[in-house]
Amino acid sequence: MSDKTRVRRLPERAVEDREAVAAILDEAFVCHAGYVIDGRPVVIPTLYVRDGDRVLLHGSNSMGLARAVRAGSPLSVAVTIVDGLVLARSAFNSSANYRSVVIHGAGILLDDAEKAAAFEVIVDKLIPGRLAELRPSTPSEIAQTSVISLTLEEVSAKVRVGGPGDDGEDLSEPVWAGVVPTRLVFGEPEPDVDLADGIDLPDYLRPYRR
Known about the structure:
The chain is α+β, with helices and mostly antiparallel strands. Helix content is 18%, strand content 34%. The protein contains four helices and nine strands, in the order H-E-E-E-H-E-E-E-H-H-E-E-E.
């Protein structure tokens, strides 16, 4: 951990175990990527996957994130999983249970040879089993897409679990307190209207879970 990634606010919630950090990154799949372009800060939501000691983000060559990396902008990527709303007996002590990771660094734009392999990693990580069914990406598709690699060198993580931390004098207040659990649920896959007859739902989507 460097000074840049040291957790200063509620340091007791800091997580330094690399496997725990990897588990958070593997469960989530949406991040918010921050960068500077044209002299202004920008934050965008985007899909990502963890691939070993790096995360991969992709999009069109013209997207602001890719242009910012080409211009040398540093990146900050945040991932959050909310596990519950923590309802205390006061607004001040109310909170949320969560698992979060923040990554700092300089993104690297992969070349075409690396992008082809990265596409396969992204598909396989997001929906395991799907890659075997898809046609290969064409050279034109690869050329039109940017894939950014960001190493997990400058990383901080925080986790909050448990119930409310009310002040002692508030415990007698006639107010309900506790935790409202939250979870992400994937529904039944909905077939495309143009799906050809005879194509059944693949086993890897029965059911899809993360």
